[in-house]
Design a protein that fits this description.
Blueprint: H1 2-22, E1 27-34, H2 50-57, E2 60-66, H3 72-81, H4 85-88, H5 97-100, H6 107-113, E3 117-122, H7 190-205, E4 210-219, H8 227-230, H9 258-261, H10 272-303, E5 309-315, E6 320-321, E7 327-328, H11 334-337, E8 338-339, E9 341-344, E10 353-360, H12 364-371, H13 386-390, E11 400-406, E12 420-426, E13 430-437, E14 443-450, H14 468-481
Parallel strand pairs: 1-4, 1-5, 2-10, 3-4
Antiparallel strand pairs: 2-8, 2-9, 5-9, 6-7, 11-12, 12-13, 13-14
Length: 487
């Protein structure tokens, strides 16, 4: 009898192992947007985003998700290696992550090493503009439309030019106007071509396990979506700009907005009309991006593999449109730090639900690996969010961290070192930030904001007795993550 039971147990175990091995691998459709704060309908924005709404119904939406640094290269390098900027020692756009971390594992490379075809369409890693600085080892084929620049994303139409494109004036990226409204097809700009190529590549790889990364360039400036997307909005009905700074905020928390305003001493101060047009253009870019996303979702639905494809959509960081007197990114404020964040896994995720669980972009690597049943590489700084994806009320983590140096683009300064580093923690109740002298580690400025005022963060509540407990908890979390140190 005992022998019979043992034989049955062995056969059952073998059956489970066989069924697991025979089950098709979960694919991954990894979609990213650039400079996209959570300005979309499912987050309560007036932005017209029907396809992101579709995505929200098939995924879990994280309402409190944050980047690790609000600028492209550090954020993307952190997200795609699962390591924080301090771990990588990458805090600027000019240093390729492999210069200081030559053997670091990346998310697509890990999938590639585990039998996946990995493809990149559009901007995923930071675009260093030269192929010598790409990360070809992460992909199974060369990247598409990756080594470009935002300033070169001007209207390109094959065949005879329509009348409105006759002799188009050249546009410099940091000059006013940063916007243009041309009646051209979607494919005239990068994202239309990214969507078309993503559809093509999906059809090419759908019959094998794939990790397909689709990187849209919008809503990043320039604000030049095709005219039909501008026409979706009445500018006078968009949210009114409040440029006020937070009370009590230290001067080091701000920057000169040179990404949009140009370089000193020739910086532009936007007129109210220009500010309104830029804000209108940002919303137009969002709807243009949304339409391209819709083409990719349609292709996934047609592919026949949607039921075994994990899908995620994130922004690399947020963006200011004049709030706090800031234009562009590179701050620790909510507008810059918070990002849209969706993950869906057929049969496992609570589709169509939202969660208040805090999340970080650094969590994507361990989460996707977990969802696809792969082992985790050593050294990841994030945590798997799968428990929350299955049960959105479950709070997998209780803090999110963002940081930024000053000057924001310190690598362009003569000594190529920061003068200060701002480190910030977001808890369920508050955002607490310390600005520290880079060399000594001494605290030179502090901020505290009540999350009930998010994302505006206009009233500083530092040392307010009403928030004493929340402040102490935030200080403890911050100093554990970012121990004061000298450089």
């Amino acid at each position: 009898m005992l022998l019979a039971r043992c034989i049955v147990a062995v056969l059952l175990a073998a059956s489970v192992l066989y069924s697991h091995a025979a089950a098709p691998k979960q694919n991954v459709l990894f979609i990213m947007a650039d400079d996209f704060r959570p300005e979309l309908a499912s987050y309560g924005s007036p932005a017209l985003t029907p396809n992101l709404n579709r995505l929200a119904k098939r995924t879990v939406q994280f309402d409190r998700a944050y980047c690790q640094q609000a600028v492209c290269n550090p954020s993307r390098s952190s997200m795609l290696t699962g390591r924080r900027p301090d771990t990588l020692r990458i805090w600027n756009n000019g240093t390729h992550f492999r210069e200081l971390n030559p053997d670091v594992m990346t998310l697509p490379l890990w999938f590639k090493q585990h039998g996946y075809t990995t493809r990149c369409v559009g901007k995923i890693f930071h675009n260093w503009h030269t192929k010598e600085k790409g990360d070809a080892r992460s992909w199974s084929a060369p990247e598409f439309l990756f080594y470009e620049t935002h300033g070169e994303d001007d209207a390109r139409v094959t065949g005879p030019l329509p009348p409105n494109l006759a002799s188009p004036a050249p546009r410099q990226y940091t000059s006013v106007p940063l916007y243009e409204c041309r009646d051209v097809p979607d494919e005239a700009y990068y994202d239309g071509r990214v969507a078309a190529e993503a559809v093509r590549v999906l059809a090419e790889v759908k019959d094998k396990p794939f990790f397909l990364a689709v990187g849209f360039w919008k809503p990043h400036a320039p604000f030049n979506a095709p005219k039909k997307y501008w026409d979706l909005y009445d500018r006078t009905k968009l949210p009114t700009l409040n440029p006020a700074r937070p009370t009590g905020a230290p001067e080091v928390a701000f920057h000169d907005g040179r990404e949009l305003r140009g370089l000193p001493p020739k910086q532009v101060t936007f007129t109210p009309g220009q500010a309104a047009e830029i804000r209108h253009g940002y919303f137009a870019n969002i709807s243009y991006l949304d339409a391209q996303l819709g083409k990719v979702l349609d292709a996934l639905d047609r592919s026949g593999v949607g039921d075994r494809t994990v899908i995620t959509f994130v922004g690399d960081h947020g963006y200011h449109l004049g709030e706090h007197g800031l234009w562009g990114k590179t701050s620790t404020y909510e507008y810059d730090a918070r990002v849209p964040f969706f993950i869906g896994a057929p049969g496992r995720s609570a589709s169509g639900k939202t969660t208040r669980c805090l999340a970080e972009l650094v969590d994507l690597f361990p989460t996707l690996v977990d969802l696809c049943g792969l082992p985790k590489p050593p050294g990841l700084d994030g945590v798997s969010l799968v428990p929350t994806i299955i049960e959105p009320a479950r709070l997998t983590k209780t803090a999110a961290f963002t940081q930024h140096p000053r000057p924001a683009y310190y690598d362009r300064e003569p000594d190529k070192q920061p003068k200060a580093m701002g480190v910030s923690v977001r808890t369920a109740k508050v955002r607490y930030t310390e600005w520290r002298d880079w060399k000594s580690g001494a605290v030179i400025g502090r901020e505290l904001y009540d999350n009930a005022d998010e994302p505006r963060e206009l009233r500083g509540v530092l040392d307010d007795p009403q928030f004493a407990k929340a402040q102490r908890e935030a200080e403890t979390l911050l100093r554990k993550q970012f121990p004061p140190t000298s450089h």
